């Protein structure tokens, strides 16, 4: 559904995207993760034809992003991080307006609007003015609007940012339902590791303009080992634990020794026999956030508040 070959974007001396390759299959939910400034926003902006690449090539739904931008735009739906609904219109009017802009045939509009209100669990609120909607309802309406013209690919920029935990979980359910029932490929960026882990079939991690790792969430976590032990007070280092073959890696983070261990349940007693003067300890299975820290050197939550796709596109249009 999406094929990227050597895609590059330079701003003077800055290599925002530096020759990346991607292949995203039809019907999958694909996550693009990275710190702010890593290149994910620029990558998505190029795939959406909001930004022209410096070099390289990409196709979306079989259409070239350089030669056929209008066909690409007809093939995609976008839900920006920033809200773009008209809050003075009703929910139905928002979808009707979008249908007209995308030339959805008039006989198809009403049944499709009804279908989308059902898909997003917004029945009975179709004729409410959007300013009366909660944050979670607005986000679901944004997703419904992005699906109005039956896109082959739906791009989601931080789909649950700013939502309460209950609304986030519901939105995850609707996105999974969208990929399954609408037969739509979903590409999303997110700062929530649990969101990427639960939602995505595959993930690519980008940093400094390059794809540094990719795979399913389980594949990425397996590369970390079986689990993570964090201890405070012990002088655990790679050198002091070098003879323990089940220890994958030892690092330091905020005063804690972070020890990655194979077969955590089996090897934990042997590890604690070696550690001395332990004041605090945390033990858990490896997470996607552990993978992210290992590959980029920082937590993704430290990187929140970055520029959204719409901001990036407007900045580029202003030169």
Named CATH topology of the largest domain: Rossmann fold
- Mind telling me the C-alpha Rg? 22 Å
Could you spell the SSE succession in H and E letters?
A: EEEHEEHEHHHEHEHEEHEEEHEHH
Could you say what the CATH architecture of the largest domain is? 3-Layer(aba) Sandwich
Task: Please give the CATH class of the largest domain.
Answer: Alpha Beta
Shape: globular
Helix content: 25-40%
| Strand element count | 14
Low-confidence spans: 301-305
Span of the ends, CA to CA: 31 Å
| CATH homologous superfamily assignment of the largest domain | P-loop containing nucleotide triphosphate hydrolases
For the largest sheet, list the strands in their spatial order: 6-7-8-3-9-10
Describe the structure.
The longest helix has 17 residues, at 165-181. The protein starts with a strand and ends with a helix. It has two domains: 2-219 and 301-317, P-loop containing nucleotide triphosphate hydrolases (Rossmann fold), CATH 3.40.50; 225-285, Alpha-Beta Plaits (2-Layer Sandwich). The protein has helices spanning 40-47, 69-75, 91-101, 106-119, 135-147, 165-181, 193-199, 217-222, 264-274, 288-296, 309-317; strands at 2-11, 14-24, 29-33, 55-60, 63-64, 76-79, 153-157, 185-189, 202-207, 210-215, 227-232, 247-253, 256-261, 280-285. Strand 9 and strand 10 (210-215) form a beta hairpin. The radius of gyration is 22 Å and the shape is globular. The strands form three sheets. It has a six-stranded mixed beta sheet with strand order 6-7-8-3-9-10, with helices on both faces. 35% of the residues lie in helices and 27% in strands. It is of the alpha/beta class.
């Amino acid at each position: 559904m999406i094929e990227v070959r050597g895609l590059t974007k330079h701003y003077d001396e800055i290599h925002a995207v530096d020759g990346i390759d991607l292949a995203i299959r039809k019907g999958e939910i694909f996550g693009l993760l990275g710190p702010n400034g890593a290149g994910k926003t620029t990558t998505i902006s190029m795939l959406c034809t909001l930004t022209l690449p410096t070099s390289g090539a990409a196709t979306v739904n079989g259409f070239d992003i350089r030669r056929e931008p209008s066909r690409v735009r007809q093939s995609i739906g976008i839900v920006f991080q920033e809200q773009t609904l008209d809050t003075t219109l009703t929910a139905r009017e928002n979808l009707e307006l979008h249908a007209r802009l995308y030339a959805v045939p008039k006989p198809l509009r009403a049944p499709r609007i009804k279908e989308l209100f059902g898909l997003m669990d917004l029945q009975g609120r179709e004729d409410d003015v959007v300013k009366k909607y909660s944050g979670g309802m607005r986000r679901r309406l944004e997703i419904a609007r992005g699906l109005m013209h039956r896109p082959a690919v739906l791009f989601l920029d931080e789909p649950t940012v700013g939502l309460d935990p209950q609304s986030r979980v519901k939105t995850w359910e609707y996105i999974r339902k969208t990929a399954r029932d609408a037969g739509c490929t979903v590409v999303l960026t997110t700062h929530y590791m649990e969101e990427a882990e639960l939602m995505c079939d595959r993930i690519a991690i980008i940093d400094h303009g390059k794809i540094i790792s990719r795979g399913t969430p389980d594949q990425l976590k397996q590369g970390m080992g079986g689990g993570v032990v964090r201890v405070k007070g012990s002088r655990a280092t790679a050198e002091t634990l070098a003879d323990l073959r089940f220890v994958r890696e030892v690092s330091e983070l905020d005063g804690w020794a972070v020890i990655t261990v194979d077969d955590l349940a089996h090897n934990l007693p042997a590890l604690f026999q070696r550690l001395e003067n332990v004041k605090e300890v945390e033990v858990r299975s490896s997470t996607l956030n552990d993978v992210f820290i290992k590959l980029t050197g920082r937590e993704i939550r430290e990187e929140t508040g970055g520029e959204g796709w719409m901001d990036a596109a407007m900045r580029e249009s202003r030169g």
